[in-house]
Write a structure and sequence with these properties.
GMP Synthetase, Chain A, domain 3; alpha/beta; eight-stranded mixed beta sheet; binds adenosine-5'-monophosphate-propyl ester; seven-stranded mixed beta sheet; Rossmann fold; single chain
């Protein structure tokens, strides 16, 4: 493995300075440089790897900040994932090997998956769903989840998957914004040995969602549920449906899906992805990053409710005809060995997971992974948050036995697919633990200052994308204005990622976390303002300020400062109630770690919450060189607020 260990500094400090020449001349850098000379030409070549019903007339229509890729082209995602394989040797190969939390197994071959998707497509049509209609999917990690997604794509319905850990309030917001006609759910889902009553959550939600005409219910747990007027059973509506459904002809620029994600404003944003551009991006990046081959057994541990699951569980691996593992449960239940035991059991060749999961496993020591045969692994990936160099090293040595390259993939819900990564399918490059390495071919990334000017190497700044890319979001659902304001604040239409980054001497990219009010808890994205609004919606809370602090396992944890309304008195009981309120209104992932009651929030004279100061206080940092703020708030005032908050925290 070509990594260069610089023993002169510390054990985990890798450099590759003596490989500089080979870096510049590597196949990868040459390919990347060529791709950037003419991105349209480059992506035209990549798009030809897909099955098109009709080729496009124009590769890119760029009316900043709106990009349309492969205009005039017709393409269907389900044809690319299924139909294209069923007349090939892949037809009877396992597409999905599913393992339930309680050890049940189901294997679906490409042909079986194709039939099930066709049947369910017909069932959806029978319920009146047509091209362009929105379908909300709220299912646990069971095979019916990708089946429902692929069925939507087959008939041109726009899917809107909602993570099954979200609450009924979260469902209401998203369903109403998308105006979905149907919601697909289950009688329940298994989580750590308990049943999550998904149908009950849906029943509560749909009282407030007038657009919903039907609820499709999958029988999963056998849990008793009440079937009401709009409810239909999955197994009943597929009965007597033909196992062939003519796929719709879908324009390349037709939305494939909406996926809601948190941002810097109160409400989640409905990120809209196209069909042709998105599929081209994820097909290409899957090949470059994972170097898929026909012997691979791929295990992506994400939940399909997030973008990683959409792109690299549902669409890209199936387009490549790969066998993949779908797992219903959590990494450490019933034992903290799930991923390692699956690697041995199924002969997994590629593991794609999160730094949070790795940190959790690391805590249990090396004995557990060492007790399994992990020798089938050939590649290891991470996603969703920065990976600490020591975790990277553990992954590389203990799991990969120093023979598997690591792909630390940086991207976002909005980018659709991977943007920065080690591209092992093009070239194995010298690795630096903690760096995501280089932008993939065909994407142009830079680090800029506040004014949008490109910064020299080794200077921390804002990560931007300088040219449109095919996986790029089209807009925010029915809100072009918000789309413009959120992402396009820089000159020359540079896309604002919200992340800080540095590019080092050898052009390696280092991601340094969010620069905005977005936090990442176990790799899940939450907005501090969204959290604050939810705190304030509790009857006792007058004002709220939310920040995060580093967490050894979860990456970050949520800390809240609350001012109570005058009729309420602080107590542990009230704190518990408020925490429960957050769980019920967003979901368990938003559970705050610490909640402090304060008399007033740290604000500037002009009324802005001092977020940097909050972060310093909770992280135990000094406030540093904070000069007088523009609105006249003096360092003395800031220092006093800082001291007061510190006292509160220390006294708890
Ligand atoms: O801050 C970056 C972080 O996750 C954000 C995007 O979150 P989301 O839309 O939920 O998508 C996550 C899965 C693609 C980014 O703005 N992030 C993602 N991957 C990495 C990362 N931070 C550092 N290193 C990564 N590899």
């Amino acid at each position: 493995m070509s990594i260069d260990k610089d023993n002169s500094s510390s054990d985990i400090n890798f450099t590759s300075s003596h490989l500089k020449i080979s870096l510049d001349k590597s196949t990868f850098q040459i390919k990347r440089a060529q791709s950037l000379q003419n991105i349209e030409k480059f992506w035209t070549e990549q798009a030809k790897n897909l099955v098109w019903n009709k080729y496009w007339d124009k590769t890119l229509e760029w009316n900043p900040p709106f990009a349309k890729w492969f205009v005039g082209g017709l393409v269907n995602a389900s044809i690319n994932c299924l139909d294209k394989h069923i007349n090939s040797e892949i037809k009877n190969k396992a597409a999905i090997i599913w393992e339930g939390e309680n050890g049940e197994n189901i294997t679906l071959t490409y042909y079986q998956l194709y039939q099930k998707v066709n049947q369910f497509s017909n069932a959806l049509k029978n319920l009146g769903i047509r091209k362009g209609d929105r379908v909300t999917i709220y299912l646990p990690m069971v095979p019916e989840l990708p089946i429902a997604i692929l069925a939507c794509s087959r008939i041109g319905a726009i899917h809107n998957v909602i993570f099954s850990g979200f609450s009924s309030t979260a469902l209401v917001d998203r369903i109403n914004d998308a105006k979905s006609k149907i919601i697909i759910t289950a009688d329940g889902g298994f989580r750590r040995g308990n049943i999550i009553e998904l149908k009950k959550i849906v029943d509560e939600a749909i009282i407030n969602t007038p657009s919903i005409q039907n609820v499709i219910v999958l029988r999963r747990t056998g849990n008793h549920i009440e079937m009401r007027g709009k409810d239909v059973w999955w197994h009943e509506i597929i009965q007597n449906q033909s196992s062939y459904c003519e796929p719709e002809l879908i324009e390349s620029i037709h939305p494939l899906f909406i996926l809601y994600t948190s941002g810097t404003t109160g409400k989640p944003k409905g990120v809209v992805h196209s069909t042709g551009g998105y599929l081209t991006h994820i097909y290409s990046t899957a090949k470059w990053v994972f170097d898929f081959n026909q012997q691979d057994i791929f295990f992506c541990t994400a939940d399909i409710g997030w973008i990683t699951g959409h792109s690299y569980i549902v669409y890209a691996p199936l387009m490549h005809g790969v066998t993949e593992i779908l797992y219903e449960g959590t990494a450490d239940y019933p034992h903290p060995d799930r991923y390692w035991s699956f690697i041995e059991k199924y002969g997994i060749t590629i593991l794609y997971t999160t730094p949070t999961a790795l940190r959790m496993y690391m805590r249990y020591g090396n004995e557990i992974p060492n007790s399994f045969n992990l020798s089938t692994l050939r590649l290891l990936g991470t996603v969703g948050e920065p990976i600490n160099p020591e975790v990277w090293m553990w992954y590389f040595t203990i799991i990969g036995k120093e023979k598997c390259p690591i792909v630390d993939t940086w991207w976002q819900t909005e980018t659709g697919g991977i943007m920065i990564s080690h591209c092992t399918g093009i070239d194995i490059m010298p690795m630096k633990p903690g760096s995501a390495m280089f932008p993939v071919p065909g994407v142009d990334l830079a680090v800029v200052n506040e004014e949008g000017n490109t910064l020299p190497q080794n200077q921390k700044g804002y990560l931007v994308i300088r040219k449109p890319w095919p996986g790029m979001l089209m807009t925010l659902w029915e809100d072009d204005g918000k789309y413009k304001n959120n992402y396009w604040k820089f000159q020359n239409y540079y896309y604002f990622t919200g992340d800080y980054a540095i590019i080092d001497d050898e052009l390696y990219f280092w991601l340094l976390g969010r620069s905005d009010d977005v936090i990442k808890i176990s790799g899940h994205r939450l907005g501090t303002i969204e959290l604050e609004s939810t705190f304030i919606s509790h009857e006792s809370v007058a004002e709220a300020a939310v920040t995060s602090k580093p967490d050894r396992i979860k990456g970050e944890s949520i800390i809240a400062f609350l001012v109570l309304k005058k009729d309420f008195v602080e107590s542990d009981q009230l704190r518990k109630e408020i925490i429960e309120h957050i769980r019920n209104n967003i979901g368990a992932i938003a559970t705050p770690n610490e909640v402090y009651f304060v008399d007033r929030l740290p604000k500037t004279r002009s009324g802005k919450i001092m977020r940097r100061l909050l972060k310093s206080v909770v992280s135990g940092l000094t406030i540093g060189d904070t000069t007088t703020l523009e609105d006249g708030t003096s360092i003395k005032e800031i220092q006093k607020i800082y001291n007061d908050l510190n006292d509160i925290i220390k006294n708890k």
